[in-house]
Specification:
Elements (H helix, E strand, L loop, with lengths): L11 H6 L3 H9 L2 E3 L5 E3 L1 E2 L1 H14 L5 E7 L5 E9 L2 E5 L14 E8 L3 E6 L2 E2 L1 E2 L15 H18 L3 E7 L3 H5 L4 H4 L1 E2 L1 E2 L7 E2 L4 H13 L3 E4 L2 H10 L4 E4 L4 H7 L4 E5 L1 H8 L12 H5 L4 H15 L3 E6 L5 E4 L2
Parallel strand pairs: 8-11, 9-13, 15-16, 15-17, 17-18
Antiparallel strand pairs: 1-2, 3-14, 4-5, 5-6, 6-7, 7-11, 10-12, 18-19
Amino acid sequence: MKDPVSGFDYPETWIKKCQSPDLLRLAEEGLAVLTSSGKVLRRGYTTGTTAAAACKGAILSLSGVVTTVPVQIPCGLIVPVPVSGSGGTASCKKFAGDYPEDVTAGCEFIAEAIPQKKGIQLLPGDGIGRFSRDTPRFRKGDPAITPAPLACILASIEEAADLQGISGVQVRLHIPQGSVIAKRTLNPKVGVVGGISILGTTGLVEPWDDHLEESMCQRLSAARNAVLTTGRIGLRYARLLYPDNEIVLIGSRIGEALVASTGEVILFGLPGLILRFISPDLLDGTGYETIEEFAASSAFHPAMQSSLAKFNKEYPHVRVVLVNRDGLILGESP
């Protein structure tokens, strides 16, 4: 049995330990993760998936009551998302799955659909954050909606408009508690104000508990030539660059993963999480708030190489490879 999201082949021993056929089916569908103990942890939906469902539900509700909508999320899966829609307005509450630290759990997204003569239009409203300054990827004033979820939202709007037989629609999206919830996120530190961000590389929120950490550690202790990657972008490019290696998604658990690893390993991914682990004070005195912003400056490369050289002395068995969002290598250990 393979996880359709990560591509991981579940060991037969893990499958046999699972006592619930229904939960095992969720893992097979990609809506949950099977751990080494046989416990199944449910994946949640990202803010991007939740927003797309609300928008699609609003349009479909123009012709009747809507309670569930199918959404094709960025990883390619089509998932059923509960909504409450009627008369052109729909509400969708964010499902966090088995991820207790998700501060946006239960957050309500509301969309209103208004037919128009031609074209689709998304109007992000209250509770959706906006950038307070220019960044390498966004301009000041842009809504904090990253490319993958934006594409998912627009595709969902277009699909719903086609199903309704309308040539154009304007969708207004807002998050009533967005500005309150945002204060408990990293948004204030990364220059996003007024609300939460709409995110989601895959459309799913990964669960986490002690069982999943134990499963990760078991995989690493048994693996040879492991590649540890911190996120979905790294996972995608690691599979292309290291097709013969065991690729393990570790998230922010870098320290735990390095302890569990045996032999030579590669730590691979975007620079943000990795450099913050290697050199927590890297941004001190730079004038930059994020690694992404610092990476666009001429001072970044020498600072990065210095950090990698110091890390190499402490962890000589770990090769660090940092890439950008296009998969180009920014730097690697000596």
